[in-house]
Specification:
The protein is of the alpha+beta class. The chain has 4 helices and 14 strands. It is 23% helix and 33% strand. The strands form 3 sheets. Strands 1, 4, 5, 7, 8 and 9 form a 6-stranded mixed beta sheet that branches. A 5-stranded mixed beta sheet has the order 10-11-12-13-14. A hairpin with a 5-residue loop joins strand 2 and strand 3. The N terminus is likely disordered.
């Protein structure tokens, strides 16, 4: 049994955010992928039968089950037990427009349910942006990035978020990164804390 994952990486077709696309695929083992089918966003290393094509850790790939059924696109990191984190269940490129829609939806939801002066604007998997948490404290953002793939998208996510907030008359004067969790070491990243 096999699982196929297609890969969008920096070495082939480029999108507006610099994410490239190729034909790399990760193929799941027979009987695996149940958590994905029931709404989960993670693919663990022991669920993958093989990966077809070339990629670098952090690249965006497609995921299919053993019989070729498309399951989603996400970023891969073979250094992590959570090898793939799904960004979309549709076969789409991860572009600025894609990120804008995800971030805008998260912000519009927060405006309906919480006081947005101080709130969690992006809450990782709950907002379909796995591995990143962004809090807003008045005019300062605090970001925590826990996965390599989302860390590569972090500059674009922050730029887009600031643009969305400006539409509501909110100008961000500073961004503090608190990515000092030990889990970053498992992703092959250094820990970091400070203004960016």
């Amino acid at each position: 049994a096999t699982l196929t994952i297609s890969c969008f990486n920096r070495h082939n077709k480029i999108s507006r955010i610099g994410v490239f696309m190729n034909n790399t695929k990760a193929i799941l083992k027979k009987g695996e992928g149940r958590t994905l089918k029931s709404g989960g966003l993670w693919v663990f290393d022991n669920e993958i039968d093989k990966i077809e094509g070339s990629f670098q850790n952090g690249d965006i790939i497609s995921v299919v089950d053993f019989d070729g059924y498309f399951m989603g696109v996400g970023f891969i990191n073979t250094k992590s037990k959570i090898t793939i984190r799904i960004l979309s269940r549709k076969n789409v490129e991860i572009t600025d427009e894609f990120l804008y829609e995800r971030i805008k939806n998260a912000w519009e939801y927060r405006k309906k349910v919480v006081d947005t002066n101080c709130c969690r604007v992006i809450f990782g998997e709950a907002d379909f942006l796995p591995g990143i948490v962004i809090d807003k404290f008045s005019d300062v953002l605090v970001v925590e990035s826990l996965a390599l793939g989302i860390d590569l998208l972090k500059p674009r996510i922050l730029t887009i978020l600031k643009e969305i907030l400006i539409q509501d008359g909110i100008t961000i004067r500073g961004i503090y990164e608190r990515s000092d969790a030990k889990v970053r070491l498992n992703e092959g990243m250094e820990r970091f804390k400070g203004f960016i």
